[in-house]
Design goal:
Shape: globular
Order of helices and strands: EEEEEEEHEEHHEHEHEEHEHEEEE
CATH architecture of the largest domain: 3-Layer(aba) Sandwich
CATH class of the largest domain: Alpha Beta
Oligomer: single chain
């Protein structure tokens, strides 16, 4: 991985001096950005492709091919990871099952990974700070209680800031939610802008309601609508907000991660879909490539740069973040 001095919330701005010639009286100072991209390569069967080299990759920035100056295979590289859990009232029936799957996922991670756990409903709460102690994380998972709204964008904003406090250069967020944002102070545009400046993979699980949910319990999501109650007192109806997969897919595309729709039956305390997806995320984090380049001057000076990563190979598919915002 690149040194910690080359990373930051955005692609790090590196200033360096180049001697024009041995007899030069002055030095030319050039400001460039080191852009880091995590790439996931799969074959036609969806299997991760190992043992590729830098020469196998082509990166284009705004359509212009770039020279790769840094390359690693991430097979045994530790990760700083944030887990963001939607604890709105609508998650009540599935909460224990989902958290059990997260607990099992934690046991599959690298021993040196540092992980934090945060929950969001109508507000965001940090439940366990960055730690490699799996017992602390498991205890925090058991203490989660559901109720309230779905401040999804506030949760993402906290996660993107917090994960950069981690010890490792490779960073990711795991997001579990069953609804659309309601009640955040932060906007979607702000979150997407932060993602464009960050080097953070986002893996988002959109948990769909099961058929029996609507008949068996009240779904709790903000905003609330007053309806007449007994003795003239207001009661509150909480509006049903189904999971917004379009937003989760935008998080994934901006970061190079993935968005998954979870449609399991959630019966008998099991959720095979969640376990399968989390196993895939754990495997993917250890099956990626990290590449970096200094954008050439002909990529343009606009704030938004589009990235395309390709690999020459039989039916290979490459997934990476779709762009970045320069400083």
């Amino acid at each position: 991985m690149q040194s910690r001095g080359m990373t930051g919330i955005a692609s790090a701005s590196i200033a360096f001096a180049i001697a024009v010639s041995a007899g030069a009286q002055d030095t030319l100072r050039v400001d460039v950005e080191l852009v880091t991209v995590v790439a996931t390569v799969t074959d036609a069967e969806g299997r991760y492709v190992p043992d590729l080299m830098a020469d196998d990759f082509l990166i284009e920035d705004n359509g212009v091919p770039q020279e790769i100056v840094h390359f690693t295979q991430d097979q045994d590289i530790p990760v700083s990871l944030g887990i963001l859990v939607d604890t709105s009232g609508s998650m009540a029936r599935r909460m224990r099952t989902a958290l059990g799957a997260v607990d099992r996922f934690l046991r599959t991670l690298h021993i040196d990974d540092d992980v934090f756990l945060a929950a969001f409903s109508h507000r965001v709460r940090m439940l366990e700070d960055l730690t490699s102690d799996r017992a602390k994380l498991s205890e925090a998972l058991r203490d989660i209680r559901e109720g309230g709204g779905t401040a999804l964008y506030d949760g993402m904003a906290l996660g993107l800031g917090k994960v950069h406090e981690g010890r490792h250069d490779k960073r990711a967020l795991l997001l579990l939610t069953d609804g659309a944002d309601v009640g955040s102070d932060v906007t979607l545009d702000t979150v997407l802008d932060d993602l464009a400046r960050a080097e953070v993979l986002v893996y988002a699980l959109g948990i769909e309601p099961v058929q029996s949910d609507s008949a068996s319990h009240v779904r709790f999501n903000w905003p609330v609508t007053p309806i007449p109650g007994a003795a003239g007192l207001p009661r509150m109806r909480f509006l049903d907000r189904p999971v917004d997969m379009n937003v989760l897919r935008r998080f994934a595309a901006a970061s190079g991660g993935q968005a998954f729709r979870v449609t399991g039956t959630w019966t008998d305390g099991t959720a095979d879909d969640v376990d399968r997806i989390l196993d895939q995320v754990a495997a993917e984090l250890r099956s990626q490539y990290t590449l970096a380049y200094y954008p050439s001057p002909d990529t343009g000076d606009g704030p938004i740069h589009r990235i395309r990563v390709r690999v020459d190979g039989p039916d290979y598919t490459v997934r990476a973040r779709d762009g970045y915002r320069s400083r």
